[in-house]
Amino acid sequence: MKKKSAITITAVLAASMAMSVTAFGAPTDIQGHWAQNTINKWVDKGDISGYPDGTFRPNNMITRAEFVVLVNNAMGYTKSGYAYFSDVPSHYWGKNAIQTGVAAGYISGDGNGIFRPNDPVTRQEAAAMISRILDLKQNESRAYRYTDSYAISNWAKGVVGAVSEAGIMAGYPDGSFGPNKVLTRAEAVLALDKTVNYKPGDKEDDKEETKKEDVILTQTKLEDTTVTGDLTISDRLGTKTITLDNVTVKGKLIVDGGSEVILKDCDIKEMVMDQKDTAVKASGKTTVEKTTFQKIGKLTGGDYTDVIVDKELSGSITIDAKVRNLTLDAETDLKLGSDARIKNMEITKNADKATIDFSKGKVEDMTVKDKVTIKGSGDIDTMTVYVSGVTSSIRPDTVKTKDNASKPDYTDDDDDWSSSSSSRRNITISSDRSGGTYRNATVTKSGVTVKNMTVRENLYVDSDVKDGEVRFDGMTIYGNVYIRGGGENSVYFEDCKISGNIYTEKTYGDNPVGLKLDNKTAQALKGTLYIRKNGADVIGLESGNATYLKQIVVDTDKLTTLDDLQADRVEIVAADADVKIPAGTVVKELYVSDKGYGRIDLSGTIGKLQADNSITVKGNGRIDEKSGKVTVEQGVKIGVTSVTLDQTALTLNVNEKAKLNETVKPDDATTKTVTWKSDKPEIAEVDNNGNVTAKAAGTATITATADGKSASCKVTVNGQPATVPVQSVELNTNKVELSVGEANKLVATVTPEAATNKEVTWNSSKPEVATVDKEGKVVAQKPGTTTITVTTVEGNKTATCEVIVKETPVAVTGVGLNTNKVELSVGEANKLVATVTPEAATNKEVTWNSSKPEVATVDKEGKVVAQKPGTTTITVTTVEGNKTATCEVTVKEIPVAVAGVGLNTNDLKLSAGEANKLVATVTPQNATNPKVKWSSNNQTVATVDDDGKVIAQAPGTATITVTTEDGQKAATCTVTVLSVDKTKLLALYLGSGVLLATPTSADGSDIPQDQKWVTAAEKQALQTAADSAKTVYDNTNADQSTVDTAYRNLQTAVTTFQKVMKPGTKTETPAADSFWSLW
Predict the structure, then answer these.
(1) Quick one: which H or E segment has residue 42?
(2) In terms of C-beta density within 10 A (0-12 exposed, 13-18 middle, 19 or more buried), how is residue 507 classed?
(3) SS3 of 912-933
């Protein structure tokens, strides 16, 4: 099928992928995405748009029906066809598009009458559709290049290879295709762009996205890859360990995910640490040219050229590696581990009050330009100091001072805080502390946590904390707390007891101090919270106004925010005050003194607002009650304080009418609408305007309500009590399903409520199916359907309920399989059969699962198909009861069949008692089963063992056959056992060989006396006889007479030889004694 035209695809995705809203400009969530260029191109042309929030959501999936709509619009398909799919009803929104796809010829469903329109479209399904659209030639061999080719369905291998070869769809950086992964929005855009612009001859190598785009890593390992742009470790990887092996990044390595990142033999141009507490561990030949920190983290191993800390961060950054240049350009603490080796370290003037904590690390050259604290133990070769006030527990080998600075103050890093005298002195805290009792305590350093300390007088958060963070936990403070430093959301009190007041009086900078209190601290505060100077953002740590404060005094014209609090009383005493009360905060009483005035931004609730001076309230919050000089802008809800009626008692006769008039205060209340209600409308009813009508003798109460406030009037109606007729009857349900023996209680409601006679009767149309008693209790008797009718005694009003009775369900007790172990070869299939017990179980439905689908898959019918060698467990689970059974499936390689077998000879002649080994050769050499069996058709003549050894038994002929186990291939050898007995001749011949080893001599004078000798002629005579005997032995046609003659001749020669053997006569001359032996 050829594509019709390369059309403009305006609103294609808008129609099918929730992109129809207008979103001007480039999407905000595709920066760094691998398909960024293509998406932006389409956005710029106006062919697609994103969501209302400005996002594109490139990694969201699309359904099969949505993808069909997308394709039809892109390719210009409009002709409608017909194909029946049981899961595509006539009213389905995408039915016409699906029928158009059928007519175009690129979809056909699942082959079982369903289309699965709402299922996500997989990558291999999309490949199949695109391949059909472009009439691509199937290319299975190309699909096998992918590392997960085994996971590509057999039907999809050709089309996956085709779209890959054409450059329409590509694989992932790890070499996989991901055939069963859902197609994302980004992948759909890219595939559609390439489909529309496809020209025969396009290749995968031409695609831009995998060569030029940045890469987002969503897997835990990446190997042997060069990234020309940025490589971002996705935050979707959470706290997993990420490994990069032999990876080159020419852009930035952005660490957005992972608790540990391992770099093996990597070349990184620049690394950005953007995931809190991530540890980067480098090894091998890894080099990182530049590293910056957006979040705290840790560097270990490897070589880092430039490490820069230029952002103030809460917590510590740990360096435990070799660094050529380390720059601390912010008030962020550093920890230098035992493996830290820093060549050059510069502490700039922006690092005020930072702490560098050594753990036996080493710095060759340190430049200090701000007041920092150096603690711990380690080595500093040279320190150049540009500012006085540097504190150090390490004494450098060489100290240089510049700009009239003094040398560092050397300190013992561990003061004795357990001394009994500590309770009588003040304490200045610049690092984490726990315990102790002090007169006054002053915190001078950001990032400090103080726990379980007792302060007899006052606690101070010094202005030196600036915009930093301080935490207090379990403190007992008998005096006041003075907060003069701290940033946004940065001064925490948890589980603290404060007897005095809290004064927020920060003057550093322009920012207010962020004060966070938990409920234990807030409730234990005996004094008042005073907000002064720069103002404060007071935040309750328990959401839903669960943090309770007694009193807050606002004495500043700076912004004061009260967030997630419940306060009994807030006083505004400052001129031009600016108070913000967000949603979730409730102030029971807010008082503006005669000296205070200003404005309130209200989203929460004020119970009572009293203003002795002018105050303006804006926002969308609520004031229950107000008085004094209060100006309320539009949007603020004013509560109703009271509702009154002009009459509180009223006497009427039956059918007489009267009007009640309400007054709602205050006049500017937001909701003044009144609702009217009679507790006994059968006696006196009231309409929406307060008009009362007497209906029958008796007493009723009429209530008027506005915004939760109400007033009432007692109405007495004179006259005879009237009968209230029944108007209708209803049941609590109109359909019930029961099993035999089950019961259900039906409830009848007679209206009106005041009906005089509410008595009802019950009836079953088929009591043999289900009975009903006078209380409406229905009991199922046998399967079938019956109608239960309730009828009022007065008026014969009826209501019905259909009761369906089913057999009592039989529970599943177990499930079994026809086998618990299966062996298959790759490509083979086997049908497992599940048996649910008992046989009468009501619900026998089961599901199937493979623990390793890459080894073997299983479909919903239990059909197992082997994919690749390995072992997997197939589990069948009952839908009812979750009963399970398992089968172990072992997948082996495809066996290589035996083609044939041959022998080293097919004709063998032996004498009785003689043996010979036959050798069998099975072809091909890589046959899976090369085993063979041996047999003799005449074992009285010749036998053969399992190794092919043939032994001649008696004269005659036997056929030795070798047969393969696989394929029953055979080869034979004819063995002829001769009738001639050569046994004695052979034995004698072998014995003559021993004699022929006797040495020869002319006269024996050269032969030792303990050896015998013969002449050369005598030895030659025996050799000639032995050679003659050997010739006869080797002659298979020699008769017995010839063999016997040869034996006798050799025997004579042997006897003669033995007789002529004589001992040697050589005389041994003793060796002369040496000087040393004589000595």
Answers:
(1) helix 36-45
(2) exposed
(3) CCCEEECCEEEECCCCCCCCEE
CA distance 915 to 909: 10
Instruction: Give which of 948, 881, 884 is closest to 921, Cα–Cα.
Output: 948
| Coil vs helix vs strand at 196 | helix
Q: Map residue 418 onto helix, strand or coil.
A: coil
Q: Is 679 or 150 the better-scoring residue by pLDDT?
A: 679
- Residue 274 contacts by C-beta under 8 Å, 6 or more apart in sequence? 254, 255, 256, 294, 295
- Which of 45, 58, 345 is closest to 184 using CA atoms? 58
Alpha helices in 760-863 (DSSP H): none
Task: Name the DSSP class of 556.
Answer: -
What is the largest distance, in Å, between two alpha-carbon atoms of the chain? 174
Whether cis (ω within 30° of 0) applies to the bond prior to 179 is: no
Write down the mean pLDDT value for the chain.
86
With both helix axes pointing from N to C terminus, report the angle between 1040-1060 and 1016-1034 in degrees, rounded to the nearest 10: 160
Give the whole-angstrom CA distance, residue 170 versus residue 172.
7
Contacts of 201 (CB under 8 A, 6+ apart): none
pLDDT beyond 80 at 43:
no
How many Å apart are CA 734 and CA 704, to the nearest integer?
A: 36
Q: Which residues contact 656 (CB under 8 A, 6 or more apart)?
A: 693, 694
> Alpha-carbon distance 409 to 672, whole Å?
72
How big is the CA angle at 641 (ends 638 and 642), to the nearest 5 degrees? 135
pLDDT tens by residue, 851-882: 999 999 999 999 999 999 999 999 999 999 99
Contact call for residues 752 and 784 (beta carbons, < 8 A) = no
**What are the start-end ranges of the E strands in 582-697?**
586-592, 598-602, 605-619, 622-632, 637-638, 642-645, 649-653, 657-659, 662-665, 675-678, 684-686, 691-694
Q: pLDDT digits over 707-754, tens only?
A: 888 999 999 988 755 567 899 999 999 999 998 888 999 999 999 887
Calpha distance 167→533 (Å, rounded)? 66
Q: CA-to-CA distance for 501 and 457, rounded, in angstroms?
A: 12
Q: In the chain, what are the helix, strand and coil shares in percent, each to the nearest 5?
A: 15, 40, 45
Radius of gyration of the chain (CA): 50
What is the pTM assigned to this prediction?
0.34
Peptide bond into 924 cis (omega under 30): yes
Residues near 56 by beta carbon (within 8 Å), at least 6 away in sequence: 27, 29, 30, 39, 43, 50, 185, 186
Query: Which DSSP state fits 1068?
Result: P
Distance in angstroms (rounded) separating the CA atoms of residues 1064 and 775? 138
b/e 555-581 (16+ beta carbons within 10 angstroms → b): bbebbbbbbbbbbebbbbbbeebbbbb
The strand ranges marked E within 411-546 are 427-429, 433-434, 437-438, 441-443, 448-451, 454-455, 459-461, 470-473, 476-477, 481-483, 491-494, 497-498, 502-504, 513-517, 529-531, 536-540
What does residue 380 show for φ and ψ, rounded to 5 degrees? -130, 115
Structure tokens given for 229: 């742009």
In the prediction, which pLDDT does 110 show? Answer: 60
SS3 105: coil
Q: How many secondary structure helices (H) and strands (E) does the chain include?
A: 14, 80
Alpha carbons within 13 angstroms on the beta-carbon side of residue 624 total: 12
Instruction: Count CB-CB contacts under 10 A for residue 631.
Output: 12
DSSP H or E stretch at residue 528: none
The Cα–Cα gap between 847 and 878 comes to 6
Q: At residue 657, what is the residue type? A: K
